[in-house]
Amino acid sequence: MDQEKQKAITSLFEVVSSIERKWANEWNNHNVLGFSKSHILILDYLSQEGPKRPSAIADRLKVTTGGVTVLTTKLINAGFIEKTQHVTDRRAFQLKITPDGEEILEEARQQVSEIINNMFGMLSAEEVQTLRDIFAKCLLDPNPNR
């Protein structure tokens, strides 16, 4: 990689890190719900996809099943999700969003929408799509045959 490209990538890393910190700070400053982004992502996943096993949630969030247990315990205790018996495997359980969970998710979506508008509102729809495409490309494995 040439030196100019390396310098640009280093600068990009700094910008992306700053955006991530800004996003986290915006969430923390405006979060009146008391839940992390991961909690909201779980609620959103269950709302969109229906009941899921903890392992599916772990795969989706790229965390361990132990991490899912910690996150979901808070949501269960708050009454936002519940454990249900798996339809085909009676030994297993799934997690399902509750009506209260749907309500809190809607509040969270409004908060996220405000944060996104504050951070990215100056961009056109085309620019946002371009950013999304570029970052999605960066997540692809450059060596899929390892």
UniProtKB/TrEMBL annotation:
Instruction: Provide the alphabetized UniProt keywords.
Output: DNA-binding
Respond yes or no to whether keyword Lyase is given for this record. no
SMART domains named in the record: HTH_MARR
Indicate the segments forming the HTH marR-type domain, all copies: 9-140
Q: Which Pfam families has this protein been placed in?
A: MarR
Asked if the Swiss-Prot or TrEMBL record annotates the protein with the keyword DNA-binding, the reply is yes
Under the heading InterPro entries, the entry gives: HTH_MarR-typ (IPR000835), MarR/SlyA-like (IPR039422), WH-like_DNA-bd_sf (IPR036388), WH_DNA-bd_sf (IPR036390)
The protein's matches in PANTHER family, at most eight in alphabetical order, are given as:
MARR FAMILY REGULATORY PROTEIN (PTHR33164:SF99), TRANSCRIPTIONAL REGULATOR, MARR FAMILY (PTHR33164)
Name it: RNA polymerase sigma factor
Species source reads: Lysinibacillus contaminans
Q: What is the lineage of its organism?
A: Bacteria, Bacillati, Bacillota, Bacilli, Bacillales
